[in-house]
Fold this protein.
Amino acid sequence: MKLISYNLRKNKAARELSVLAERHDIDVLCLQEADTESLAPEIGELRLISATTQNRLGLALYARHERFTIHEARSFSLKKSMHDRILQPAHERLLAARVTDTEKGHDFVVASFHAAPLTALNSLRRHQINAALERLDLLGPGLPSLMVGDYNYPVFQQRLMLEMSDLGYDLSLSDARTYARYRMFTGHYDFATSTGFAVNGVNTLPQGVSDHLPILIQAEPKLVPIAA
């Protein structure tokens, strides 16, 4: 299964999505900073599963409609940073779906995530990540889960990896930096967090008009029988 996660930078990179989906033959597309009211219902073979509705710029999930059956999709609010309270850019920072892969015969949970900006502390972002993973487990108890997106976590990533490992999750960074707007802030911002998945690669794709570079994740769920 191939996924792309992309922060569109205030929706500016939306016009790149069709080319990305076709060029990389992806199965799932996870977006951040999307103008959800203007998103296309379909992008090639991908169909819009769900999008947030309360954010000025929100999250969206697309999946290959011939391969996946969507059982439930939900958005979640997470603990707010001071930036959120003053400017109110995002009420919903997690969008997740429980999915059946009809080709492979298993269920899993996939999610698009956007953490608080750099004006917040890493401790707040860790709280958001932990809370997001708890929501995924509620949506699909015991199922493999894969959460990708903009974690806004360019430093002290080793501590985050250790904390994720203690919780039974793997944190996968891309093979190259994923943010390139300001030289002093360049680094890895866009990650994948997973449990019950074998993540076979996370690759940074060439930069488009966004300040974030899209990442391509190749992952294989460990088989869990389809629920009755």
